[in-house]
Amino acid sequence: MARSTHRPHAETADGSPAGAPVRTFLRTADGVSIDARYEPGAGAGDAGDLVFVVAHGFTGDADRPHVRRVAAALARHGAVATFSFRGHGASGGLSTVGDREVLDLAAVVAWVRELGHGRVATVGFSMGGSVVLRHAGLDGGTDAVVSVSAPARWFYRGTAPMRRLHWLVTRPAGRLVGRYGLRTRIHRRRWDPVPVSPVEAVPGIAPTPLLIVHGERDGYFPLDHPRMLAEAAGDHGELWLEPEMGHAENAAPEELLHRIGHWAAGRAG
């Protein structure tokens, strides 16, 4: 993917400066409407300071309680932007489960830059973790990257939760469950071509600081996934294996979220 020069278009021309909460819709480079919200958090008087862009997991959205909990914790360390990926929540389009979602994240990163922030840290969970890796490795434009509970490679079916997820994504009945049971609208077409995988994108992130976080009790992706990512990152990456943690936002304890905030504040920019 070429480096994006797209700047997001806010459908609601609020004109709000950094330091004021904003809820708006952004337009991605491929024309999808993305629901996004910005909250000033700590250091609200300094628009050039750090902003966290939180990328949720599959079937999440900006208003889900677990996403709001992450945002509240990170707001103690900087401003926070949350959004709903395509096919999720109030955003338009259909989920491609980590492929074109890179364009959603790129629109939000460009937006917070327009608000005046000089330092941007992307923090992604599960699917969102794969998206922040691919965005940073293929497109750039961030000052620190945190990937939590992310897969290293595509098409993994080695655990029961991942077999259920593949049924949800690939079968018509599964997509109906996604739409009406999980409020997630899933694209019916398979990837063509198959996008660059997270582990293939990771070497391109350097020299941007990278943190990989994974729970040792993760029921979706075993520990070979974070270890593959860390090996691909080399010296510019850090790996935290959390002994009591399961999978993604719901399993991330408050203490871990604050450690992530401290790490990003010290490494970004």
Automatic annotation (TrEMBL):
This one is known as Alpha/beta fold hydrolase
Which Pfam families does the record match to this protein? Abhydrolase_6
Q: Which GO terms describe its molecular function?
A: hydrolase activity
Q: Where is this region: Disordered?
A: 1-22
Q: Which residues form the AB hydrolase-1 domain?
A: 52-256
Q: What PANTHER family would the database entry show? A: HYDROLASE, ALPHA/BETA FOLD FAMILY PROTEIN (PTHR43433), NON-HEME CHLOROPEROXIDASE (PTHR43433:SF3)
InterPro entries in alphabetical order = AB_hydrolase, AB_hydrolase_1, AB_hydrolase_fold
Q: Which UniProt keywords apply?
A: Hydrolase
